[in-house]
UniProtKB/TrEMBL annotation:
Taxonomic classification: Bacteria, Pseudomonadati, Pseudomonadota, Gammaproteobacteria, Candidatus Tenderiales
Purpose of the protein: Catalyzes the NADPH-dependent reduction of N-acetyl-5-glutamyl phosphate to yield N-acetyl-L-glutamate 5-semialdehyde.
NCBIfam families membership: argC (TIGR01850)
The protein's name: N-acetyl-gamma-glutamyl-phosphate reductase
Active site: 149
Catalytic activity: N-acetyl-L-glutamate 5-semialdehyde + phosphate + NADP(+) = N-acetyl-L-glutamyl 5-phosphate + NADPH + H(+)
Length: 342
């Protein structure tokens, strides 16, 4: 059994991680921390876990966490970089669901996150946990930086085109919509039901924290610099991301065959039939990315539709997928949940 601990389990990604780990046949949950909820039963805060998780929240304690085989950080940025080093020194694997180790260029990270990075040497070591790109490196990792939700949907959508050099790299557009759970489990006027319902709005058009992370991944895929316009939107749903991606083709190619071949062996990427329109509800609660490719009017514009559940493939599910790879388990273990409908 893999002994797992979670630092910061009271947010939406934390409870999703708890749900998935509790259903994993080869995982034993050892500890879950929360400075604000010490002593509270997990099941009292999250009644869906009643009878499944018997733990209570505890103060973060390195000695307790060091009894685990793997520790997940489901915390805001700035937390994991302060504790990961000690855990790694004690032989514990660390999987960070936050942003501390995603961006390799430290000045860029500090610019976008507004603080000094206290562990740049760990950022240099961390493996970016997008399995469809870095599976082999993940197998050997000590520290994994799980991708953000927008970056997952956007990178998986653009990947086959950039890897094969089929589009103009200087004119990429990602128009992405997210449910309100992407803003986290906190009191915020903008995500109140009366504020977010029956409305949709763009935000952070001048620059979003996920932009440098997305660009970093796209540059790796393309082997050259890229220019990306990324516009996120808040939509009146709880969970889900829909990314509509635009690029200009520089070569004529069978796009359907290209995507089907690239993702043929990927258990959590579903390339839909030609002309399909994937829905966010088709991935709700599942560790799945569904993709469809369009070429309007047969012209040189390609439109890729990419949908994920931001809390699963965009966060906790991807973290568990990384854990499975890291420990040599079936990559699908604990992640074969079918999406919820309606």
């Amino acid at each position: 059994m893999i002994k797992a601990g979670i630092v910061g389990g009271t947010g939406y990604t934390g409870v999703e991680l708890l749900r998935l780990l509790a259903g994993h046949a080869q995982v034993e949950l050892q500890v879950i921390t929360s400075r604000s909820e010490v002593g509270m039963s997990v099941a009292n805060m999250f009644p869906n876990l009643r009878g499944k998780v018997a733990l209570s929240f505890s103060e973060p304690d390195m000695d307790a966490l060091a009894q685990c085989d793997v520790v997940f950080y489901a915390t805001p940025h700035g937390v994991a970089m302060k504790g990961a080093g000690e855990l790694l020194a004690r032989g514990i694997k660390v999987i960070d669901l936050g942003a501390d180790f995603r961006i390799r260029d430290i000045p860029t990270w500090e610019q976008w996150y507004g603080m000094t990075h206290t562990a740049p040497e760990l950022a240099a070591e961390a493996v970016y946990g997008l399995p469809e790109v870095n599976r082999e490196a993940i197998k050997q990792a000590r520290l994994i930086a799980c991708p953000g939700c927008y970056p997952t949907a956007v990178q998986l959508g653009f990947m086959p085109l950039l890897e094969q050099g089929l589009v103009d790299k200087n004119h990429l557009i990602a128009d992405a919509k997210s449910g309100v759970s992407g803003a986290g489990r906190k009191a915020s006027v903008g995500t109140l039901m009366c504020e977010a319902a029956e409305s949709m709005k763009a935000y952070a058009v001048s620059g979003h924290r996920h932009l440098p992370e997305i660009r970093q991944g796209l540059v790796q895929m393309a082997g050259a610099d890229v220019a990306l316009t990324f516009v996120p939107h808040l939509t009146p749903m709880i969970r889900g991301i829909h990314a509509t991606l635009y690029a200009t083709l520089s070569h004529d190619v069978d796009l359907q065959a290209l995507y089907e071949q690239r993702y043929e062996a990927e258990p959590f990427v579903d390339v839909m039939p030609a002309g399909a329109h994937p829905e966010t509800r088709s991935v709700k609660g599942a560790n799945q990315c569904r993709i469809a490719i369009h070429r309007p009017g047969g012209g040189d514009t390609v439109v890729v539709l990419s949908v994920i559940d931001n809390l699963v493939k965009g966060a906790a599910g991807q973290a568990l997928q990384n854990m499975n790879i890291l420990f040599g388990l079936d990559e699908r273990a604990g992640l074969e949940t079918i999406a919820l409908l309606p």
